[in-house]
Design goal:
The complex is a heterodimer of chains A (321) and B (439).
Chain A (H helix, E strand, L loop, with lengths): L32 H15 L3 H4 L7 E6 L4 H13 L3 E6 L3 H4 L4 H11 L3 E6 L4 H8 L4 E6 L5 H14 L7 E5 L6 H12 L3 E5 L16 E4 L2 H5 L4 E4 L4 H6 L4 H8 L3 H4 L7 E3 L12 H4 L6 H19 L3
Parallel strand pairs in A: 1-2, 1-3, 3-4, 5-6, 5-8, 6-7, 8-9
Helix pairs in contact in A: 1-7, 1-14, 3-14, 5-6, 7-8, 7-14
Chain B lengths: L2 E5 L2 E4 L4 E4 L1 E5 L2 E6 L9 E5 L4 E4 L1 E6 L12 H10 L2 E6 L10 H8 L8 E6 L13 H7 L3 E3 L8 H14 L2 E4 L4 H4 L4 E2 L2 H6 L3 E2 L1 H18 L2 E4 L5 H12 L4 E5 L1 H5 L21 H13 L4 E2 L8 H4 L16 H12 L4 H8 L1 H7 L15 E11 L18 E11 L2 E5 L1 H11 L1
Helix pairs in contact in B: 2-3, 4-7, 7-8
Classes of the chains: A alpha/beta (321), B alpha/beta (439).
Bound molecules: zinc ion.
Chain lengths: 321, 439
Amino acid sequence: MPPRSKPKRAKAAPAPPFASAPGSLLDLEHLPTQDITDILKSARRLAKTPRDLLSKMLPGRRVALLFYEASTRTRVSFEFAAKNLGAVTSVVTASSSSIEKGESLTDTGITLEATGAEAIVIRHPSSGAASLMARHVSVPVLNAGDGMHEHPSQGLLDAYTILEHKKDLRGLRVVITGDIQHSRVARSNAHLLSRFGAKVTLCGPPALLPGSASALAPNLTLERDFARALRGADAVMMLRIQKERLAGFNLNVDEYIAGYQLTAERLRIARKDAIVMHPGPMIRGLELTADVADGPQSVIAEQVGNGVLVRMALLLRAFKA
Amino acid sequence: MAALLIKNGHLIDPAAGIDRPMDMLIKDGRVARVAEPGALPSKDAKVLDARGLIVAPGFIDLHVHLREPGQSYKETIASGTAAAAAGGFTSVCCMPNAVPVVDSPEWVRWLRQPERGAVVNVFPIAAATVGSHGEQITAFVALKAAGAIAFSDDGRPVVRTEVMRDALAAAAKLGVPVIQHSEDPRLSHGCAINAGPTAFRLGLRGMPAEAESSMVERDLKLARETGGHLHVAHISTRKSLDAVRRAKRAGVRVTCEVTPHHFTLLDTHVGEYNTAFKMCPPLRSEDDREALIEGLLDGAIDCIATDHAPHAADEKAQEFERAPNGIIGLETAAGLALQVLHHHHKMPLKRMVELFSANPARIAGLKGRGTLAKGAHADITLFDSVRAWTYSAFDTRSKSRNTPFDGWQFTGQVVATVVNSELVFTAKDAKETQRKSKI
Ligand SMILES: [Zn+2]
């Protein structure tokens, strides 16, 4: 309603929606810019730190990895990150008994904390699950992907990877292509890149990229035509496509490939030094062709390695170490 | 029972065309006399000094969930009607989506028994289909005889066209409305939130306006075909309202209600997954909200109903998609109408009172209510259109506290509620004032 007619809130307003322990990472939309810079700096330092030194950074600290959704990549990445630093991890999955018996998300969090978890990494199929958890526990919560909302550690590792190849994010042209609507990776990347002045183009068919997406962040452009989106691109980020999802929207896989697959020919439209990214898991021959995935411009394997560095930085931040 | 004289008040009775200072004598549960200020004798009568107050026909809420039978941890008829009284409502019509679904005359009668402890009048709405499964209509005649004033499967829509046609045709014969929760489940995605930029930002599947309007348009066709009275519950989009407007012009028997939250709040207020702002239909865009206010002002919308939907705190403290739909609303409805419609959008009080009393009474066929003409039921709402107050969910009379309006400051407050001649609610400050004036 118009501000002038809005009843004022009393001083005794309920707790702000962001109530969370310091060191939490719920999303990139609200993460202070300085924090992002610090995390990336810390990850770069960690890349040069010898293993034996790393393992003394979080000795014996307890990290719970709460995975309500199957995810090899992110789970292993967080697990290795924690173990590299000397921390102890415990993986809890959706098939564990209390969750199967219908225990609520908040009760699970409270139980983990009472058991001694000093930080909770959570992956959950529902958007907003990480911030819900963070409101009910007093230990830091790290969002490892919540529904279609955000995947902040992925956004950070993508920025880290880009900066390994490009001097600055400011003015950089980044194309994100595929199933934007259902992608938490797209949302996290769009927030971070836009904040640092990159020119982000979101590309995909209307069913996978609604018009409302352009309001997500400043400096976002929507483009239905992949070739046009690729013109002058410095980085091309391909998102995962689920065949069942295409079918749900009556999208023909062959037509999708014809319109949006990254091929060697299409990649030539981008800048010569453009990098190719994919958050995984990727299907060669669907989102991009094998020669592009394995080609010289691909940094997909680097992304995975950088993920561990960024997640180590996030854990150190969570423990203020 | 002693007679009650309400004096020095400003009477607004839209059905009788009255909007000026008048005194009123109440006797044996009925309005005995309405006369010029000072013209009624006060001997043998208790006096209620209504100085500075609007005296209006008791407010009627066509859409509440009292959660009985079966979900008394959320609300009971006693607690829900206490909240109604505090909100100025003298009658509430309760939706049948209880456990079990109110689809039999026995349950309709049960709801009306004095043992339930109702503080205000309770008029049951019976299920339109058996078990609200949407397959086969209920025994309309027997249910009406037991006391049902309308039929609805609220909470879910009657999806099948032939079943909705049957319901409207049966209702036409009885002269009662079918109340439809208009939502095409194939388009609504479980309706956690309005489709738009906020839904996209939060990564939630949005419910488009078309999920509502397509169902409204289909039902309007059926209402025209059958001559049945369609009442569209909690209308929330410009598209649906346009369809209702067109149908009204074409002479279709259709009425509709809007909730205070839909004419006050927007989908953006969901913020970071605040489930106190999650209801069905969801909060909509500013354009939709403007359309609803236009409709309230120009008559396209017939009444204000709360869709009071209590839920326990732990139910709302879940993942946004998983948390149940609905908010409590009985205690804040009049405050929001005064604040948003009267003060901000300059709606005359007479129109506001009509939206809360005369019109819902007419839609639900409640004879002798919605007016304060001589002989009418002595159901009266007294309010102060400028008094400031703050709503506190902590002090609610409801069993649940799921409101987005906790801590809101309002201009305009319900001061007293009279049901069947009995004073069932007095605002705290008002009591103080009265005591002082007596000394
Ligand atoms: Zn409903």
